[in-house]
Design a protein that fits this description.
The protein is of the alpha+beta class. It has two domains: 95 residues, no CATH class; 168 residues, no CATH class. Helices cover 18% and strands 27% of the residues. Strands 3, 6, 7, 8, 9, 10, 11, 12, 13 and 14 form a ten-stranded antiparallel β-sheet that branches.
Length: 312
């Protein structure tokens, strides 16, 4: 459950526990007792009677996720981003020797986050109308896709797209479930690969098994893999495709994964282009304060937290 910081215009995911509540009350009490000009009474009045779930809703609705995505500073509205996590080296800060969840800045490296997008118009799940549209579809006809962004310590490194076992053509494997061969025909401009041989469990052709994925690759002018798509071979319209690419060519060290129904495979080029454009629009403009080498010691944050949050 997302929580909040009372720093102005900075609603962020932190941690949540009974200890956090004690710290919040203690700090507010001490500050208000020691300084007649303290804003603690104002904060106490403002949040009086507000439950933790209500605070979570406030944080999710009005906050922003900031950080550095593969070298690019970003500011993402919280109603867009979900399952946000930062690199381990951006999770903690120390004040007087005590460890606290760190306040994210534009220098905090994002590890991963997700968002929903509608195909093929690239609309985001940001309004009640969009939520209603998503709810009006099922797994067999939905136009909605999930985008998973992986960067920071989770980024596989430049050139990772050439690592898959099928990237160099007819690469043999001693494991039948990894032994692919190149198909003669292409699909939507993609080179396809199917399992060769037979499934030893059934004796049937491995490529015909309902659990056998079909791998599609696209290569750039230099022969490097620029797109990989693994599609389920299940014989129904809810079969999932998993499209992966590297945003390094746009100056962003991030692996992008999009999950969508197999019926959208024909739009794979537009999907990759559109998702790239959406992510590039997340670029933020860091204030001078966040470009300093360290957070100023006078910047006191009073925070409420959640133990289930990945920010811990």
């Amino acid at each position: 459950m997302p929580t909040y910081s009372i720093r102005r215009n900075r609603l962020i995911p932190l941690s949540h526990s009974s200890f956090g509540a004690v710290v919040l009350k203690t700090v507010a009490t001490l500050v208000s007792a020691s300084c007649s000009l303290s804003l603690a009474p104002c904060f106490a009045a403002a949040f009086a009677g507000v439950s933790a779930p209500q605070m979570a809703v406030i944080a999710h609705s009005y906050g922003e996720t900031i950080g550095r995505l593969g070298g690019m500073p970003v500011k993402i509205p919280r109603q867009i981003a979900d399952r946000i996590e930062y690199d381990s080296d951006s999770k903690w800060t120390y004040v007087l020797g005590i460890r606290f969840p760190a306040v994210p800045t534009y220098r905090s490296n994002l590890l991963t986050f997700e968002f929903q997008i509608r195909l093929p118009d690239m609309a985001l799940l940001t309004t009640p109308e969009m939520l209603e549209d998503k709810a009006g579809h099922n797994v067999y006809n939905t136009p909605w896709a999930k985008v998973i962004v992986l960067s920071g310590n989770g980024y596989p490194g430049v050139g990772f797209m050439n690592a898959p076992h099928v990237s160099n053509g007819q690469t043999r494997s001693k494991y039948w479930w990894n032994d692919y061969r190149k198909s003669q025909k292409s699909n939507f401009g993609l080179t396809s690969y199917r399992l060769r041989g037979r499934d030893p469990r059934t004796g049937r052709s491995a490529s015909k098994d309902k659990d056998a994925d079909i791998v599609y690759l696209n290569r750039d002018e230099y022969g490097d893999v620029s797109t990989r798509i693994d599609c389920s071979n299940a014989p129904h319209d809810a079969a999932i495709c998993n499209q992966v690419w590297d945003m390094a060519e746009h100056g962003v060290a991030a692996q992008i994964t999009v999950l969508y129904r197999r019926g959208h495979l024909q739009h794979w080029r537009d999907i990759q282009k559109g998702v790239n454009q959406v992510i590039l629009k997340f670029r933020g403009d860091p204030p001078m304060l966040d470009e300093l080498p360290a957070t100023p010691i006078w910047l006191l944050e009073v925070r409420y937290a959640d133990t289930l949050n990945p920010y811990q």
